[in-house]
Amino acid sequence: xxxxxxxxxxxxxxxxxxxxxxxxxxxxxxxxxxxxxxxxxxxxxxxxxxxxxxxxxxxxxxxxxxxxxxxxxxxxxxxxxxxxxxxxxxxxxxxxxxxxxxxxxxxxxxxxxxxxxxxxxxxxxxxxxxxxxxxxxxxxxxxxxxxxxx
Amino acid sequence: xxxxxxxxxxxxxxxxxxxxxxxxxxxxxxxxxxxxxxxxxxxxxxxxxxxxxxxxxxxxxxxxxxxxxxxxxxxxxxxxxxxxxxxxxxxxxxxxxxxxxxxxxxxxxxxxxxxxxxxxxxxxxxxxxxxxxxxxxxxxxxxxxxxxxxxxxxxxxxxxxxxxxxxxxxxxxxxxxxxxxxxxxxxxxxxxxxxxxxxxxxxxxxxxxxxxxxxxxxxxxxxxxxxxxxxxxxxxxxxxxxxxxxxxxxxxxxxxxxxxxxxxxxxxxxxxxxxxxxxxxxxxxxxxxxxxxxxxxxxxxxxxxxxxxxxxxxxxxxxxxxxxxxxxxxxxxxxxxxxxxxxxxxxxxxxxxxxxxxxxxxxxxxxxxxxxxxxxxxxxxxxxxxxxxxxxxxxxxxxxxxxxxxxxxxxxxxxxxxxxxxxxxxxxxxxxxxxxxxxxxxxxxxxxxxxxxxxxxxxxxxxxxxx
Lengths: 150, 467
Fold this sequence. Notes:
The complex is a heterodimer.
Chain A: H1 3-7, E1 16-17, H2 23-33, E2 37-41, E3 47-52, H3 53-62, H4 72-75, H5 89-98, E4 103-108, E5 111-117, H6 118-144
Helix pairs in contact in A: 5-6
Chain B: E1 11-16, H1 20-30, E2 37-43, H2 51-54, H3 61-64, H4 67-74, E3 79-83, H5 93-97, E4 102-105, E5 111-112, E6 125-127, H6 128-135, E7 152-156, H7 160-170, H8 173-176, H9 183-190, E8 196-200, H10 212-218, E9 224-228, H11 230-233, H12 237-245, H13 249-263, E10 271-276, E11 279-286, E12 292-304, E13 310-321, E14 325-328, E15 332-333, E16 342-343, E17 348-349, E18 351-352, E19 355-357, E20 364-370, H14 373-376, H15 385-401, H16 413-423, H17 430-445, H18 457-463
Parallel strand pairs in B: 1-2, 1-4, 2-3, 4-20, 6-14, 7-8, 7-14, 8-10, 9-10
Antiparallel strand pairs in B: 5-15, 11-12, 12-13, 16-17, 18-19, 19-20
């Protein structure tokens, strides 16, 4: 299973932010869309950074009064790891866990096509396992002639 | 107006596509506490079960027993089946919107992904899914022909469909004769002259999608010796590192099985099945008469993407494989439905967690939903569609709670049935199907087979005394 199958049911919206926008504007976007991270893009739409709630929280604790007026580019993570739609969910999950990445922008031929969260990956893997268990139950039921427990 | 979902005003739902997802969704709707719901399930073919009937290999009868659970769902008096009724032909989306509170599309992925290599469209180069539908007796595919007089065939891809095709090509006629394979396919395969079957994977054995039971089955074929190329099943450095970091027993087992195949020596069985890895077809060669005369392969090595996925990269080293018949099994793709927004990027209905979205505004369309392969793309096994359908049904119930649903002009069950009859007088009900099922099984008993399938609509209607 690949990232593509996660993006397929996430809808085409990707909420992005420009690096020169303020943290106040970024927070409004996070709240409006009920999400945990924003992808910062250059004028060509290419991802150049990622801004998470944590980035904001960390700065807010340190510089309480000035955080809102700061720019996105001042707080965002610039060394951003991006995925491609053909990436295997399993390696993606492993990499996100190892590197403690919660959100992964996905790029297809230079175009930002989506963002997936570690929660999306975990849920997809859980559904895969559930599906396999369901299949095994069907086959075992056939073999032993018992009704499937519900 | 009262909210639908009560004894006096049941929630009326149309589900388009009677495969596993259609049944799982029906079951979950019927299980909603306190909700009275009518489900009308449509399919463009006269028979239910989708790929369980037309996709699952005939020598895999065990998993087909899932249909017993579907029959139980169908026994609910609030369930109706309309077989042989096609959306866009007999009924339109507007017809459904005029008769139901909610419409759910579960039409699956009906076509193959293309490879995009020269020669792909030569004669004797086929989509594996067409071969699968053919040997399973799908009425729309029974007319296809496959040149089984060739001695060497290649299956491109290492998923479970590829494994199915390789296995069916390698089985003896005696083995196939005990399955519910279509009669005409059994006859054609009886006369098959295929001696060698190649299965080609572009990545290594650890990345192959087929599951261990499938791999094991390939090694236990009574009529075919399986083999693999030792250096191709040896793990590369990157895969070894990944497996060391996060050991995965299933993958290790798969690699072990394939390594064992590489050590086997032929025992003189009539056919050979050769597993190849780290090779990609770059061209199918014309035999000079418009048919496949061979295949040019490039050898690959693996590299890691930013997320650690191992992907193939061509080395520049080429090889020719002499084959006269090719089955492409590199994935399915969804087909757009008339008047339903489509997401071309992923080949699915445009949706968010199963709610169909408006193509322009990207906002949910009232009362329209999707689940299964046409929602998320062709991944997972039959059972994977159960949690997937549950996600969509949860959205439907949530929307109902907020009174978001269609306001049909005439929601009576009789009104839509009249319309169906007008456009497709020969539709099949579930009762009709159960009768056909009984006849198919009885026909099979005489010859020791699970069933003998009806493969034309004409024969089905004749058996029901309606021709």
